Amino acid sequence: MVNLAGKKVLVTGGAGFIGSHLVDSLIEKGCEVVVLDNFDDFYSGKERNLARHIGNERFRLVRGDILNYELLLHVMKGVEVVFHEAAQAGIRYCNLNPVKAHRVNVEGTLNVLLACKERGVKRIVYASSSSIFGKTGFIPINEACPTNPGSPYGATKLAGEKYCLSFHEAYGIDVVCLRYFSVYGPRGRPDQVIYSMAYRMLTGNRPIVYGSGEQRRDFTYVSDIVEATLLAAETEGIAGEVFNIGFGKDFSINELLKILFNTMSIDEVEPEYLESYRGDFERTLADNSKAQRILGWRPRVSLEEGVRRFVEWLGDTLKCEERV
Q1: How many structural domains compose the chain?
Q2: Which of 130, 287, 300, 311 has the fewest beta carbons closer than 10 A?
């Protein structure tokens, strides 16, 4: 294992959902952390995700874009490890904005890789997605399953992953790709299913379900995602590998609703069912045995416990916004 303490690291998209939690853990480990984030208006509130670190001598925030290659070269001076979390997320959003998705997720990733090559970065950890698999007849999904994304978002994340692996083969770049499965938790995006339903319920509205609600997801709590991401940076001898990072248990959206109702002690109401969106898929379930075997990673937070933590955070956040 490589000790990250004292190393200079870069987190692209470090003000976002997963990125900001990763920054918290890297600061705790004693890293010198540089964050590059353009604070895109896809969703608001990212400034407060990093507020606790402003003024810390081991933290530096750079407002900028991964599409700016010269800026990437500048912020990577002395950086040993790059965590590439910056992306245009959201299947529905990317369906409506495929050009933006391509520019950020493909061209942006290529820029990051080129800058890492130029600066001699020792390891890159790339945040990929279970969306690269698309509709698959393989359950659970292991790393060798065919990739057939059914959305621009999934296609761009797969293209980014392929660029990472090709740079490993062509230039010997030390890169590891992590396929995250349905991440949720505090600071999440408002368009995510758990956030969206909980927010509507806390504000007195019926939750919205796209499709029948019988589609199933492998929900993975953000702290488990961060732990796997750190292990991917610390574990030696894994350059060029890809790992599924999912809890390993799936729930239907209707089952998720029941957990939310129970957690929030709210009487069940009929959700508002809307037409499903193209590019959605019926089921994800991660075979995470490779990550367990090689990274020594074990998911710890059950869906029930993760939903409890998230609802508590969201309730506190809404109260703070009311006082403001």
Answers
A1: 1
A2: 300
